[in-house]
Structure formats: C-alpha cells, structure tokens
Amino acid sequence: MDWDLCKTFVAVADTGSFTAAARRLHASHPTVSRKIAALEAQLGTKLLARAADGFVLTADGRMLREHAEAMAAAALRAEAAVGAGGRKARGTVKLSIGATLASHWLMPRLRSFLSEHDHIRLEIITHPFPASVRRREADVVLRPVDSGEENLVGRKVGRLGTGFYASRDYAAGRSLPERSGEWKGHSVVGFADQDSNAQLARWSDTITRQGTVVMRCSSQGDMLAAVRAGIGISALSCFVAESYPDLVRVAPQKLVSVADLWLLAHPDLVELSAVRAVIDFVAGCARADREQLRG
C-alpha cells in the first residue's frame, strides 16, 4: 500500500474535507482528491462518503484509518530509532506555539539556536493552536494545558501570567480600578475569540463586568494596539505588556491570572536528535525567563 496515499487519507479523515487536508499537507485540492481516488481504486472500495459539511468515513474507511494510524506510529518509531543514532541533529521539526509567545518571546531568541543547529529546519506553527501531535500537525507543542488525550510526554516548563493594562494617557486624570466596584465608567477591551481563550475570557469578563466593553478583539496583538491607543483597559500577557513603557498595570497585586506552560512531544519522537534539540532549547529559554513569563 502506498504510504503517501495513506497519509493523504488520514489527513482527510482527520479534517473532514479535501480543502482542510490540502492545507495541512501543503498540497492542492485536486492533488488530495486525486490521491483519495487512487487509494480507493487500489483497494477496490469507497473510503469516504459525502456529508452536509464535508466527508465521513465508510465502514471500510474506519477500518483503514485504524491501520493507517498504526503505520504512522511505526513510521515515527523508525524515524526516532534511526535519528537517535545520528551524530548531528538534522531534519524538520514542527513546533506548535501560541502566536503571542512566538512573536514576542521565542523569535528574538531563535537566531543563535538556528546558527548552532544549521541542519535543523524549524517550522513554527501558530494556527491551528494547539496543533495535534497525533495527527502530525506538530512534533512539539508549548501550551497552557498538559498532555490531555493525546498521550504525550513532557513537563511543565514555566508559568504564564496575565494582568490588566491601560495606557498612561488613559490613566492620566482618572483613578484606575482596584476592586470590582470601581470598574464603573471604565472602558474595556475584551476577548472576541472566547473558544481558544475560554478561561481568560471568563476571568476578564468576570473582573470587568461593571465596566463597559467598547470592543472585543480576537488576537493579543489587536488588544495590545487598542490599549496603547487609549481605547480602554484589557487583559494582556504580562511579558508582552511590561516591555511597553507607555502602559501601566492595573492593580498588579490583586488582578493576575497564571497558567502553567507545558512542553510536550510524542513519546516516539522525544529521542530524535533534532526534536530533542528543540525541546532542550525551548525549555532552557523558559527556565531563564521564568520571572518575565510569570509577570
């Protein structure tokens, strides 16, 4: 059985559409469609059935998916076994990380790592976040939740703090809130994407419920820009906001939310030299910057 065709099938099975599978595989929609047709012809059976919102697996498709995932796991173990014996770390490593951490924290630290490990090609995956290691969307993930249902291995490498911030212009001539009853009359910039930021969104809405939400944003970058423009007060990652001298923190001793940061990988990949190099580098950076990340 052609492994390349199986990988395409698994991508469609995971995403439920040719378009999403093509995006994951960095291929075109017609290429994915052609490979699925070739696999069905090779096996002499239908693997997918059309549904209202994409595709679902047939009985034969469900059976093949089980075997294909076993093949993928075996491929991972083989890759790790061969790679672990190499003298120099090499290959592509996909790191899943939140967009804010990627741009404001990791990027400024990557130049030295890439110079030292010139045989490693690093892919930074910020969408979807967190990416799935089981589906090979990523090899390593840095995220504020533990291994969950993916049976990953790793450790907690730090804590990520979030606080409320306002611009100095906004704060001039007015008293910033210290307790819940003091939010009346204040403008608030809230979370628009409450699915990916559910815990922080609930925390922010609870604290600021007596204020007036003047706008919501789906990205930390837009929330930061809104606060710096003096539009209102917003919850921001402390390590980002503290780097801007035009911002002031609201009630730093009282209003803070802290989440654990977990660095995780597939158990069959952790001994792959390139993956191990990335894990050690990210863990080292988090350890060195633990106070900055905590806020």
TrEMBL record:
Q: Name one Pfam family in it.
A: HTH_1
UniProt cross-references to Gene3D superfamilies, sorted A to Z: 3.40.190.290, Winged helix-like DNA-binding domain superfamily/Winged helix DNA-binding domain
Q: Which residues form the HTH lysR-type domain?
A: 1-58
Looking up InterPro entries in the UniProt record yields: LysR-type_TF_proteobact-type, LysR_HTH_N, LysR_subst-bd, WH-like_DNA-bd_sf, WH_DNA-bd_sf
Gene Ontology biological process terms in this record: DNA-templated transcription
Q: Which UniProt keywords apply?
A: DNA-binding, Transcription, Transcription regulation
Q: What's a Gene Ontology MF term here? A: DNA-binding transcription factor activity
Query: Transport among the record's keywords?
Result: no
> Does the keyword field hold Methyltransferase?
no
Instruction: State the similarity comment.
Output: Belongs to the LysR transcriptional regulatory family.
Function summary: NodD regulates the expression of the nodABCFE genes which encode other nodulation proteins. NodD is also a negative regulator of its own expression. Binds flavonoids as inducers.
- What protein name applies here? LysR family transcriptional regulator
